[in-house]
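Two quick folds needed for the group meeting slides. Do the first one here.
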Amino acid sequence: MCGIVAYLGNKPAAPIIINGLKRLEYRGYDSTGISIFENSLQVYKKAGKVVELDNLIGSKEFTSTIGMGHTRWATHGEPNDTNAHPHYSFNQSLSIIHNGIIENYNILKKELLNKGYEFSTDTDTEVLITFIEYIKSEANCSLEEAVRQALTSIDGAYAIVIMNTNNPDQLIAARKGSPMVLGVGDGEYFVASDATPLIEHTNEVVYLKDQEIAVIDRDKFRIINIEDEEQTPVIQQVELELDALEKGGYDHFMLKEIFEQPNSIADSMRGRVDAANGNLTLGGIREYSKALANSKRIIIVACGTSWHSGLVAEYMFEEYCRIPVEVEYASEFRYRNPVINEGDIVIAISQSGETADTMAAIELAKSKGAIILGVVNVVGSSISRVTHEGAYLHTGPEIGVASTKAFTGQLSVLIQIVLNVARIKGTITESKFKELLTELSTIPVKIKEVLESNAQIEYISDLFKDAHNFLYLGRGYNFPVALEGALKLKEISYIHAEGYPAAEMKHGPIALIDEKMPVVFIATKDSSYEKVVSNIQEVKARKGVVIAIVTKGDQLIPAMADHVIEVPECHEALMPLVSVIPLQLLSYHIAIMRGCNVDQPRNLAKSVTVE
């Protein structure tokens, strides 16, 4: 959500910034802009995509070696040219880009209006930069000190970069609750929301901590905190390949990432799963593995797709570890007064590791003495740094906004955690442990087999691309898959879809079923199979159109369903890893046929770093 790129070095800044903004398009945005120094601060901004900003700049040849750019996801003020970032201060001596929300901006704005300042936008960001300008003028202090003082009066979240017309050799950056990384190159520095715009320039980065301020000059940088205390920066190496950020011959990142899943799941198991010898090693959760096994309760906090993977984990923890589990929406959990006891285990799941609501839920749980374990994809992300222990997905960068390989990567890692805990606790037999571990190791091959049905799924998609509603039904481990399938369709095709436990159909959704309602059943052979068959018969009796995901070789359901997609036989606890693949492809093809932007769906952001 929103993207920041800034540069200070010895090369022309504009091309580096524009290219960096393109790298950040996956985060989701509605407008974009750039600020550079050409004798004075100059701002160019535009509602729409980065390509439109590029066209606005046109053939201008900028020589400036300092600049910053932004992709905005609107919070305060509608998405238009005026509200796009960067923003000037009142007298245009400063410019700013900002991710986050300043919660007390209205109070500050009223104070500044009373002092004679005026505003040309509806944004909280213009208030912040004008407030900084005011402090700098009133206190007759440096910009660094004015920023520090201003941030002590700010409520909310921010990641900001500021340029100063009176000092074109300095950038000032700061963060609280919104991610920011500083890239250290050879005589040049970069600032960005994440490492993706930096890796073609440097692999050395500093992850800014909350309430830290980076003062970046041409020959050095230093970091202070909001109390004006010098901090010792820790330079880390980013292990990210440029090829991973390219489409690799696919039309869209989403399709590429769907087809990457055999490899990404294998990567999530590499160095951990040794099925041949019956060994499972989770180094990231070594210290707290016994605490996890001995816990009386596990709370899983997550949002969106990550919440669905948490539901699958709930079923597995309870079945194989005999530990009660609660799966909470982080956005609700943080605003309740939940009962959390010292020593409770909280598992936080987030692809980006930056989800604002999940971060807030973690802080709440930590304050009450809970042990926090993280399951995240992005190395060095905020959640990975504030949790006690955790496990990375190692599935590689996910650029498409609609999560695909991160979902299956989360499932893979969560299954590994469950099996590890069950073995420590002794609630699983050694033969069952080895059976599931062996089954897990075969999942990449089984997904590869499902992907061979892509053409068939594309054909089915064409039949239903004009539907107005979809219903997704599943039972047991496949109920969360139904939720995930419906979410994918909503996210990228803008078709209304709902996921339900199949048995709940009779408690409301059955009233919607007619010959125009496609009903997707995840109907693989498992302990609920006979019940799902009955549910399909109920839909057919009401002229519903059934698309069924079935186990290969099944003959009963194909005789009833209108369309069938086969998946390989699999243990029911691991089936979500396989049964979700056709639903990802179904949503992708329907969206493409409807002319939707699958990689950057409207109104959505990859990393939701504000409430």
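Then this one, please, same format:
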Amino acid sequence: MKKIIQLVIIFTSLLSYSQNKLTGKITTEKNIPLQNAIIHITENNTFTETNELGIYTFENIPKGEITIVVHLLGYEQKTEKTNSISSTELNFILQEKEQHLDEVIVSTAFNKMQSQNVMKVEHQSVKEMRKNGNIALMDGLSEVPGVSQISTGTSIGKPVIRGLSASRVLVYAQGIRLENQQFGEEHGLGLSASGIESVEIIKGPASLLYGSDAIGGVVYFNPEKYAQFGKQEANFLQQFSSNTQGTNTSFGYKATPGNWKFLIRGNYNSQADYKIPNGDRVINTRSIEKDLKYGIGYSNSHFSTDFRYNYNNLNLGLPEEDIENSGFRNPLFPKQDIDNHILSLNQKFYFKNSKLEADLGYIFNNRKEIEDIDETALHMKLKTANYNIKYYFPKWKNFETIVGIQGMNQTNLNFGEERLIPDAIIKDFGAFMTSNYEWNKNAIQAGIRFDKRSISTSEYGNFGDEGYFEALDKQFESFNFALGYKTNLTEKITTRFNLASGFRAPNLSELTSNGVHEGSNRYEIGNSNLKNEQNFQADLNLEYNSEHFEIFANGFYNHVNNYIYIEPTSTTIDGNDVYNYVQNNAYLFGGEAGIHFHPHPLDWLHFTSSFENVTAKQENGDYLPLIPANQWKNNLKTNFNLSNWFQKNYISAQINYTYNQNNTSAFETKSKDYTLVNLGFGGEMNFGKQKIDVYLNANNLFDKNYIAHLSRLKNDGIPNMGRNIVLGLNFDF
């Protein structure tokens, strides 16, 4: 054993000394050094900053071709490729220019800059979401054009992308597929915003990259980055919410002393019942969330590894009639108690001109729905192991190619007094190939994929009785493709056109349900004869970008064969209306359009406005359920400096108008229009080297009484939250 340890130490030391080094200087056109410019290596997602002399240094860059991105507020962003084997010095000259950050997109196949990407991807910083006064992760996501949420109060939110939700939208966290019984309407994400750097949203089928369940799109959460090379950082965040009398506390520490790097972050979030405009509180919409994230990584010129662990405990109340109010923050019965464990390992191996990347994950979702102190009605343990392995071939001329395999092995076991879905084993396997070709100002990307899913369930109960589950053994297969083209029509006009197919295998609830779904208050009967949902979508994106004006327009048409939905029958069982799962072809169409105006010489003024629309019907002309209403969102923001110690100040005003939703399914009610006004103010306080970010928001400023169409409390006539004042303090040490 001692010899093995010595060999490991020697091997690690050799790797440490065999790393490549890159240094350089960032200056203006007048050769003035630029301090605090950020230099980012996209291949291993590491970054550093220039010192007071404008000099930067990397000690552990990947072997082979790498992409360097340089950006500094008020200057142009530059991107350059170099070979780390032959290049040890790379200098940059930046011109003064107001330019928006061109983000590196992680969720797509080739991790390119947004401007280079064939597929349009929305990118949002979680830090910016907080500045808008959002107290839940889904609140921030729903500000993105084309994205909405199905909500239950303030504690449960599920993403809706262009009218598709639940099992049709795939969520990724820490680089792996998140599985947490997402088919349930009252099942939230199970993620805390603490320790998440940003989110990327693919709107449209992404089955080529992710397999089943990405038929509507992908929500991809990027974890918090490690500290810069050779540095350590600490962070403390405190947020207060007046409406829910809520408090959210987060503390994190991270360090990168050399090739090794690590971080740890803890979060505690407590919200009381939310208040509606008439002053009443909606009893049992309270929640307590505890979250812990840990990461450790190692990188050199030959490989990098990143291990992450996330534990999330969510204790939240389920609002129902006739609940006797007591206490203040602790959830009452009925409630959910959910433990979620996410373990992920990202491993990259760098060769001379190619790369091998593997993501391995394990998720344990322990979900309890507790009726009273003596009864755990529902208790499910979902265990999921998955893998995603990709090989990046050497670049040949302008061709880049990736081949990959993905898979999942999942078990669901029941321990409660009731069963929503049976005990089951699900296995996935997929293989794909995709290529990207660039020439001049054009790029084309194409790929194919094959997937197979097997579902095996156990028999439970007596045939014909309520709660009986028959044994099933089902196989689902699908071939899919994607084809996209991007071109710069002029220096300022970019267009993207994408065609893609996707599929979704029926979930356990749709196949096997036979009982009362308490979250929906209906008796649901599954259909074991359901087929794959198979869709085809065309998407067109046009963008005009200049230094002071931007405009975009996105249009889509999405045809779905064998769309699965639930419809009421004319019968009841034990006083509950009976619903059956059925299939029909459907189609969705619509899009988003918007502008960003940044006039010169009023560089401190920004105005953004966007409109989004979705229409969704079955082939027989009936409307699909749970389709968001049209929205028109406007934001006016000013930037200024109040003093030397209080800088980077801003004032923002949001005016968001939601239209009537009269296009409803057979068991939905129509929704009225409403306008919400939000105000925000913030800035950065400087006390020597200490920086404190401060933001103050008044959301729903005029205490508007409204009910969102996708609120699950809508059928009970319960309004959404009234006015909410949010104060946030962020300390960086």
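Slide caption for protein two: The longest strand covers residues 549-573.
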